[in-house]
């Protein structure tokens, strides 16, 4: 079986590493060096632009921090960019699986983004939504990745079936053209 490639995107400090480390190790590692983000805020910070199109990903996890509205606006922007890229690249194909994650649910006393807003954004972007806390819970994050991986595998299978089908259709057309023409010229 081929590897599955997932991209975790989101603004700086949203908790991408914490979510991933929680899933892979079941542990919450509170402090570690902050990576260069794959999606960076630019200019005033009101717009979040991906450094490069993520065309290698089979699925996306877009993370924001529920106690930071700017990170939610960034997530909105990232989802829009993913949507636009898939309109360009995947004509007629089933959408690439995407999950919107509202992280740091344990900080609900400092909440700036309601759960309804998250759900509403996900609905508009045709993606799954969940609030989680990388600090407090493994189960939610594990369940979420398991579901996303399942969706990605189904998506890849669907895409492979489609390619096989359109390949055999082209071959049938080619044979028809060649032999059809011959028959006419006899
Ligand atoms: N309270 C709380 N803190 C969290 C949670 N997840 C991450 N953090 C903290 O938020 C900070 C940023 O987390 P990171 O995982 O480094 O965030 P990131 O999105 O990978 O950040 P960059 O690498 O800078 O893009 C760290 O201090 C984490 O300990 C959470 O669920 N709850």
Topology (elements, then pairings):
Layout: E1 6-10, H1 16-25, E2 39-42, E3 47-50, E4 59-65, H2 69-89, E5 98-103, H3 115-124, E6 128-131, H4 139-185
Parallel strand pairs: 1-4, 4-5, 5-6
Antiparallel strand pairs: 2-3
Bound molecules: guanosine-5'-triphosphate (GTP).
Bound molecules: guanosine-5'-triphosphate
- The radius of gyration is 21 Å
Label the structural class: alpha/beta
The H/E string reads EHEEEHEHEH
What is the percentage of strand-forming residues? 15-25%
Summed over residues and divided by their number, the pLDDT gives a mean of 83
Q: How many beta-strand runs?
A: 6
Could you name the ranges where pLDDT drops below 50 across 5 or more consecutive residues? 36-41, 43-47
Characterize the biggest β-sheet: 4 strands, parallel
The tally of helices reads 4
- What oligomeric state do the depicted chains represent? single chain
How are the strands of the biggest sheet laid out side by side? 1-4-5-6
* Shape field: elongated
- Assign a percent range to the helix content: 40-55%
How many angstroms does the end-to-end distance come to? 49 Å
């Amino acid at each position: 079986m081929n590897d599955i490639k997932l991209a975790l995107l989101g603004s700086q400090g949203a908790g991408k590493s914490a979510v991933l480390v929680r899933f892979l190790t079941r542990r919450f590692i509170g402090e570690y060096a902050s990576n260069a983000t794959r999606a960076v805020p630019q200019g005033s910070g009101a717009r979040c632009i991906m450094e490069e199109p993520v065309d290698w990903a089979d699925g996306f996890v877009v993370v924001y921090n529920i106690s930071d509205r700017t990170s939610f606006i960034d997530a909105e922007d990232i989802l829009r960019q993913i949507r636009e890229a898939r309109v360009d690249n995947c004509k007629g194909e089933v959408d690439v699986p995407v999950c919107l994650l509202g992280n740091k649910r344990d900080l609900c006393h400092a909440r700036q983004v309601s759960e309804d807003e998250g759900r509403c954004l996900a609905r508009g972007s045709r993606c799954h939504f969940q609030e989680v806390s990388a600090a407090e819970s493994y189960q939610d994050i594990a369940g979420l990745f398991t579901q996303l991986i399942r969706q990605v595998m189904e998506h890849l299978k669907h895409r492979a079936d489609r390619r096989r089908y359109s390949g055999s259709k082209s071959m049938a057309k080619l044979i028809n053209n060649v032999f059809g023409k011959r028959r006419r010229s006899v």
